[in-house]
Amino acid sequence: MTSTVNRRGVLRSSLALASAGLAAPALIGRAQAAVLKLKFSSSQANDPKFANGRVYYDNLVKQIAASPIAGQVEIAFFPDNQLGQEIDMINSVKLGVIDIMVSGSSISANLVPLVGVYDLGYLFSSFPQQTKAFDAGAAAPIEQALLKGANIRVIAWAYNFGSRSVLARKAVHAPEDLAGLKIRTLPNPVITECLRLMGAAATPMAFGEIYTALQAGVLDGLEHDPPTIVASKFYETAKFYSLTEHNFSPLAVYFSDATFNRMPGALREGFVDAARKAAVDTRVHGLAVEKAALVELTAKGVTVVECDRAAFRKRVLSQTDAFIKAHPDAKPVVEAIRAIPA
């Protein structure tokens, strides 16, 4: 396996493995199998420790190299919004312009509203509980809805690297402390409503615009997981991280259905198998790196604040009932999640 970085910072991994002793002349006249080239996109920084897109990419490359399809796939990795903002990227996956995208489930709710069920405040109690719920059937309706409504497959589920909490210019201990604070949320109505119910002046904004908005004072903070805050250096603009833990957002591996359908059967099966194994590796990494990121934030001068999570939870409970009323097909998903003990 070889990895190279071109002038734009795009990481390319060539999985065409050749033995060191195979000379070029020996290839003359020999038919060579075509290598499938895929575009992999992430909004996050190109950080091999704290950015979930890069971590997943590295794990995927490793799993493919160790699999029967080694040498048959070449993946070009585009981090840091190089292929557009997240809403542009998810639409490109829908159209087959981008093959793979790793991001939270939230962004695809803009295409298929049912996916927004995973953004409901305090729905999940932990990431391990989430995995058990997905294995018990809470993922299948979402996967089917995305495939039917947007031509996008979720070929694996991992974790965002920690629960989502609030980074702000002041300490937030209770809902009253959020009053009037302009907190960036994903451009997703469910997460925006969750933060509004928690007390914030919820402000939807594309990921790539956050840093400059914080610098300019357009925002007072954002909600995200600790490793993302480290990787994107948001700690440079706000110094209080309050552990609201309002959302354990699943990390989806989105795959274009157009790409899926043009892959030969054996290659497709091998790729999906490698993608799922890479997701398991990424989950393990995510659970460990959340703690490391909190230590890193403290070292960068950020104060980590314990807060009254019960008070926040109480304020957002009505959101789930309202979502089910608007989307009745979400009820079995919520029930499957709630049936798994915390």
Detail the topology: elements first, then pairings.
Blueprint (H helix, E strand, L loop, with lengths): L1 E4 L5 E4 L21 E6 L10 H14 L7 E6 L7 H10 L4 E5 L22 H12 L1 H11 L1 E8 L4 E5 L6 H4 L3 E4 L3 H10 L2 E4 L5 H7 L4 E4 L1 H6 L8 E8 L2 E7 H6 L2 H35 L3 E3 L3 H18 L4 H8 L4
Parallel strand pairs: 3-4, 3-5, 8-9, 8-10, 11-13
Antiparallel strand pairs: 1-2, 2-4, 5-12, 6-12, 7-10, 7-11
Helix pairs in contact: 1-10, 3-12, 6-11
What keyword list fits this structure?
D-Maltodextrin-Binding Protein, domain 2; about 40% helix; globular; 2 domains; single chain; 6-stranded mixed sheet; 13 strands; 7-stranded mixed sheet; 12 helices; about 350 residues; alpha/beta
Describe the structure.
The protein has 342 residues and is of the alpha/beta class. The protein folds into two domains: 2-21 and 33-115 and 125-161 and 249-290, 3-Layer(aba) Sandwich (D-Maltodextrin-Binding Protein, domain 2); 164-248 and 297-338, D-Maltodextrin-Binding Protein, domain 2 (3-Layer(aba) Sandwich), CATH 3.40.190.170. The chain is built from twelve helices and 13 strands. The strands form two sheets. Strands 1-2-4-3-5-12-6 form a seven-stranded mixed beta sheet, sandwiched between helices. It is globular.
